[in-house]
Predict the structure.
Amino acid sequence: MKTVLYCRVSTTEQTLAHQQTQAEKAGFVFDRVVADHGVSGFNVKMRDRPEGRRLFDMLREGDTLVVRWVDRLGRNYADVTETIREFMAQGVVIKTVINGLTFDGSTKDPMQMAVRDAMIAFMAASAQAQAEALKIAQKAGIEHAKAEAAQRTKVYRGRKPSFDRKTLARVIEMLAEDAGVTAIADETGLTRQTVMRIRSDPGAADKNLSEWGL
């Protein structure tokens, strides 16, 4: 009989070293440590993971499989419950580091089986619920970041110009001819303030048009 620690290490969650240390502090001693790195527990089933698939061939009746929590087995309700039931059917005992839960298929007492199965369902559902909540939070965060970026861009660009490139060229041309602000405003339809801004910094006016894609 052997004890195997299985770790699933995603890109954003706890490291392999952390999971192993946490299990050792809880009193577990392992014959082997098996880990999948960078694998989604939501989209990739246990049997589809390189190391997860090996567990089904490695574990035998009387062996113990240790995981930090059921979410290391996966975050998909159907896959987690199926995985636990299959291991139990093989006579494998599953233990969690967090909460010290034990899933054992050896019991034949109907009440104990009902409680065990209810706990499996609850823990698997919790793992999927956490994953769903995380996805929603991430999506909201991304949308918020996009909105902030758009707002910053809008503020950076300033107010949309009231003139196009043709009008700007005419204003600059008339300024070169020493035309007055009022005369330029009358011909182009721009306000005196706009004409004066262009006169004070033609380059900024051209840049503003470019930032707005005009």
